[in-house]
Each structure stands twice: as C-alpha cells, then as structure tokens.
Amino acid sequence: MLCVPKLSFRPATTDAGHGWRVWPNLARHLVPMAVNQLWVADITYIRLREEFVYLAVVLDAFSRRMVGWAMAEQLRTELALSALDLAIGSRDVTPGALVHHSDQGVQYACGDYIARLQHAGIQPSMSRPGCPWDNAMAESFMRTLKREEVNGQAYRDRAEAEASIGAFIEAVYNGQHLHSALAYLAPEEFEAGHAPCVRTVAAYIVTGSWGRRTKENGSIRSEVQRARGRAVVAAGEFAGGSGFTNGWDQRCDAGALAG
Length: 259
Fold this sequence. Notes:
With 259 residues, the protein is an alpha/beta fold. It is built from ten helices and five strands.
C-alpha cells in the first residue's frame, strides 16, 4: 500500500482581500540603470522549532543588494514598515526617482505604508493579480535564502533566527553571494566598482542605439562584447526571467554583435 506523505503546513503571507487602493505596476517595463531606482519587497515565513515567524525584505533591483529587512511573530504592517525604514535609512533616496514594487498584500497597500513611501518621495507599484513573476527578483531571493540558510535549520526562537539570517544577509548574500546577472559578482562588489560599465552598455540596449553605436565606435563595441552578459541581464532579467533575457540575447546576436 502506497502512503502519500501529508504536506507540511505553510502559513499564508499575502492577503489581497482588502479595500485599499491597488497601485499600477510601474516596474513591469522599468529597467533600473543605477541603485535606488527600483526596490522590490516581499514577505515570507520562517519555520522555528515550535512556531513560525515572518521575514520582510527590500532589495535593490539594480544590484540585488538587500537594503532592508525585519522579522516579527505577526504579519502586521509594522513588519513591512520596519524593513522599509531600514532601507530608507541606509540608502540615498532621491524623491521621485525611486519605485517600490511589491505584491498586493494588505501590509503594502494600507494607508500607513503608502504614506511612508510618499513621505520619502517613493512611487508605489504592485504586481498584477495572480502573477508572482511580476515580483520575480524578490521571489528569487526568498528561494536562495531558504535553500542556502533556512532549510535544514532548527531555530530555537526568533532571536536565534534573526541572528543567523541577519548574518547570512549581510556577510554571505550581500558580501559573497555571486550572481550570474552581475557577472558573477556579489551585490556589494557590483555596487562598488562595476555599475558604471553595465549602465553604459544597458543604456545602448534600452535606447535602441546598440547596433548603431557599436558599429560607429570600435571601443564601445569592444566594451559591449566584454560586458555583454552583464548588460543583457541587468537590462532584462528582472522583467520576467530567462524568457525575457533570451529575447535580449537573440536581439544582440542578430543585431549589434553580428558580423
């Protein structure tokens, strides 16, 4: 007789059944060219030995750097606000230049959270209903966190979980975790020294001048060839994963880098 294992309980982290305004998706076609132009936010659960706690995060979509996070026993708005406050306090935000993208959960749609964004000059953006890939970068971080840190752990309590996950975020993820989208650099290293090159090349893609500029200027063409992988993903991966990136690859192969 075959035995089907019972699925473990997974607490819900998104409650979109609310009456607050659902903001339009500004991030869907936005390609960040520098830090603090697009942040993505999400919430997940962390399993302890006898209970669950919840982790809210804010990432910079350009560098994949974790810029804010917080943990709590309850899914209240204060959890998301604590992560947001840490992000705002640790970054140089230019009013009107930053989009904050999240799902439609009540923690992000409620008046207190939107007021905090607007007070800082940050534009709210939300995923479409039933489209988790609209927030693919935040989802990707959560998978990395669970795979490399949380799974297999048996945190005694919230304090132990906070200490261990905090160390992972700051020392491992931000400081050491290599991203193929960043030319196999960690977020901190990418922000420190490689962003200008990628922004330049990505700009040629987005403005449609890739082929013309690379043919007119040999040095730019050489730079494109050296940084092609980084720029393609920086300009495209966020918008939906490998399919979008492959589309940019095909455009590059057929256009600027042909011949």
